[in-house]
Sequence to fold (384 residues):
Amino acid sequence: MKAIIIGAGIGGMSAAAALKQQGIECEIFEAVKEMKPVGAAISVWSNGVKCMNHLGMGSIMDNLGGPMHRMAYNEGISGATMTQFSLAPLVAEVGERPCPVSRADLQAQMIDWWGREKVHFGKRLEAVTQTDTNVTATFTDGSTVTGDFMIAADGAHSIAREYVLGHKVERRYAGYVNWNGLVEIDEAIAPADQWTMFVADGKRVSVMPIADNRFYFFFDVPLPLGLPQDRSTVKHDLTGYFQDWAQPVQTLIDAITPETTNRIEIHDVEPFKPLVKGRVALLGDAGHSTTPDIGQGGCAALEDAVVLGQCFAEEDSIELALAEYNDARVDRVKDLVLKARARCDVTHGYHPETTQAWYEELRSETGEGIMKGLSKTILGGPLG
Fold:
């Protein structure tokens, strides 16, 4: 049995690992000639780490995961602590720690784990066809490949998604722009073992520790879609958006390198079904593109892969295994997308009274409420 995997990102590589565990041959095709991930880092919460362990890649998380032992919210302008707490109770409850990691390093190490020489780069999907017994992918260079089934992990702009659904899906602008990158850890910005967020006026600044003494940072600003952007003005732009904010935020802005800072207009896709058409299945962002507001985009792709493997362990029939995968994932990923969208609206001030009420709640938060929500999301995954 042979699977065609479209995409060598987190979703595609984890799908290949899951299918390999079931003795299924996988051939992986990636559109770009060289991997250049969008976004500097990624929050892999405990459910995602469990999936990496299950897939045999837990050592990658051990190598790349930062020491994120605490969590804090600070008032953006004054810098005053609103709430600060240990994540140890969460880790004890769910059975695994969260691991913020460099996205580039994660993808590179997943590909190296599989074997870089076994991934076909520069193969951009153009069309999909299938019969009762196989699936054929046609690439923009005119080449084709045929396998018994296809797992399409070709991202938020998925070509395969249109084939599965029979129509094109429009992405929805979430209303804010995110700047992100990496800086050396500086405790004048935040403690080295803590996910620290500064919030005010519907804006957010965040730093979290990853490996090699680095902070992953991001800035969120509600803005209209399509504003001009220029890397050379990044510091000037952020200084303007956060001119009255606390000194740690100013220190962070001073520390960033414009050439390696990403600017992303955040989108998601309205949840849809099915995720499967015959012998073709969508996985990761192709099937459930979400905003990053609850840190579950990458985790959901890893969950997809684990469930995919479980379904093939239970079923010899490709069609039945993929149908079970669809049924097991469609409600879970819809929930994650909508949960992230709801959190986005609160965080970014789309309903000012609600956002202000959230700020007030943070000032009396002991951590129990936040960890309860995190735990519910984590334990809702396929590995508990």
User: Anything to note?
Assistant: The first strand starts at residue 2 and ends at 6. The mean pLDDT is 97.
